[in-house]
Amino acid sequence: MLVTTSYEPSPEQLDRGRRLAAEAGGTFVPRKRLTLPGMRAKFGTPGGEAPAILVATERELKYYTPEGTALFFHPSTASIRAKRLLRGEDDIMLAVTGVMPGDRVIDCTAGLGSDAIVFALATGPLGAVTALESEPAVALLLQEGLAVYVSGIAALDEAMRRIDVRRVDHLAYLREQPDNSADIVYFDPMFRRPIGASSSISPLRGMANDGALSPEAVAEAARVARKRVVLKEHRDSGEFARLGFEKNARGGATKVAYGVMTP
User: Fold this and answer.
1) Edge-to-edge strands, sheet with 70-72
2) Segment 56-82, tens digit of pLDDT
3) DSSP code string of the chain
4) Where does residue 241 rank: exposed (0-12), middle (13-18), buried (19+ CB within 10 A)?
5) Rounded distance between C-alpha atoms, residue 261 and residue 230, angstroms
6) pLDDT for 167-185, tens place per residue?
7) In CATH, what number does 2-72 get?
8) How far apart are CA 60 and CA 233, in angstroms?
9) CA distance 156 to 254
10) How many CA atoms lie within 13 A of 202 on its CB side?
């Protein structure tokens, strides 16, 4: 992966680009006058394989796949859900998980963090949300985005800053946790049966870990969770039965359902 900046970067941008390259195990390339296609052509492999490119600008971080698709951090539906919560309205995920202020939540498949952000709002300053993401580029976008994104909603921004992002496989992380050390363990893996209309997920699907959730991970989650283990999946998915979850179809009119396991 190449890491670069926008044209005519500030010293701060250059420092950030070099830091991100070191963290991601990528190669920092000064932008100069290079376009992104020009950079791909210059630094691609002899066989024609184009590199992925991470671009650090003053305000955001964008990841471009070798095909040119851009992915960047945005609270997405978390912004809408946050506004509803702040108006005193309910959130289906929070109702199903039973999360309370002060709880510790482990989001095992964070992606770009929409659900983790809502959990952080619900758990509040005395709670803790740990967001696990196994794919380095996605984890980097999430970590940087949560640290610097400004939504204009103070409570939402504070919630984002409280999330602890870990670049790790969820099974490896859960194995290291003591018994009953979290209140909620949450899984939202890539659906075995994709929802075609979910445009917010489509750019992420090519980058995210698309492996099926393992029974061992669920067993570890049940050991770690004091209250509940929750799985979010397509409402018609066979994953609930395969993994031993009781399906709770509180996704309303959507195609999303939640599976609940009480340790």
Assistant:
1) 27-28, 2-5, 53-56, 61-64, 70-72
2) 887 788 888 888 888 889 898 899 999
3) -EEEE-SS--HHHHHHHHHHHHHHT-EE---TT--HHHHHHHHS-TT-PPPPEEEE-SS-EEEE-TT--EEE---THHHHHHHHHHTT---HHHHHHT--TT-EEEESS-TT-HHHHHHHHHH-TTSEEEEEE-SHHHHHHHHHHHHH---S-HHHHHHHHH-EEEES-HHHHHHTSPTT-EEEEEE-PPPSS--TT-TTTHHHHTTS--PPPPHHHHHHHHHHEEEEEEEEEETT-SHHHHHTPEEE--STTSSEEEEEE--
4) exposed
5) 6
6) 999 999 999 999 999 999 9
7) 3.40.50.10480
8) 30
9) 25
10) 7
**Rounded-to-integer distance, Cα 14 and Cα 226, Å:** 45
Q: Which tokens is 240 given?
A: 């609930």
Range 77-261 has CATH code 3.20.20.10: no
CA distance 100 to 88: 14
Closest CA to 160 of 249, 75, 257, 58: 75
CA quadruple 160, 163, 166, 172: dihedral, nearest 10: -130
**Weakest mean pLDDT among 9-23, 122-136, 240-254:** 240-254
Give pTM, 2 decimals: 0.87
Where in the chain is CATH 3.40.50.10480? 2-72
Please state, in angstroms and rounded to a whole number, the distance separating the CA atoms of residues 85 and 242: 33
User: Tokens standing for 225?
Assistant: 């969770």
